[in-house]
Design brief:
Layout (H helix, E strand, L loop, with lengths): L1 H20 L12 H11 L3 H23 L11 H18 L5 H26 L7 H39 L9
Helix pairs in contact: 1-2, 1-3, 2-3, 2-4, 2-6, 3-4, 4-5, 5-6
Amino acid sequence: MSDKINLRFGILVLLIVAAAMSRLLPHPFNFTPIGAMALFGAAHFSDKRLAFVLPFVAMWLSDLWLNNMMYDNGGTFQWMGSSWVYGSFCLISLIGLLALRRVRVSTVLGTSLLASVLFFLITNFSVWYASSAYPQNLTGLMLCYEAGIPFFWNTLAGDLFYCALLFGGFEWANRRIPALSKVVS
């Protein structure tokens, strides 16, 4: 029994870590696995603490690498709006827990779309709220959202692509390795 537990758990962790590491590869702005990692973890870890913690830690570690080794972030881990990004990630995980109790193509597509929209709304709100680049009124907020639209399309494409890769890849492996179908992790 413990071999089955370890195999399923190991594959789930491997997929999330691989997705997080893909952030280190060159990619268009916002074309990342962030939303897909949150949804995938929420859907497949039976221990719901792990559904939040493991994707969160994978994202945090990849951020740590990106912000300290690849980008000049002034020697600090935090950046403007990081708490909003992590908060939206937790909200996406929660939505995944509620909506993906049964994994179906339609629910994965729907939650992926919702994740992209929420991430866009929350993170662009944070840019407007914490920045002097836009007037602090409804017009400024709408201008900020308008400026973020090109990034939204990449977020949506990334969420859909990585959801297809993670959910589809795990389903493909599930059909070939019977031990993976046991929800024991």
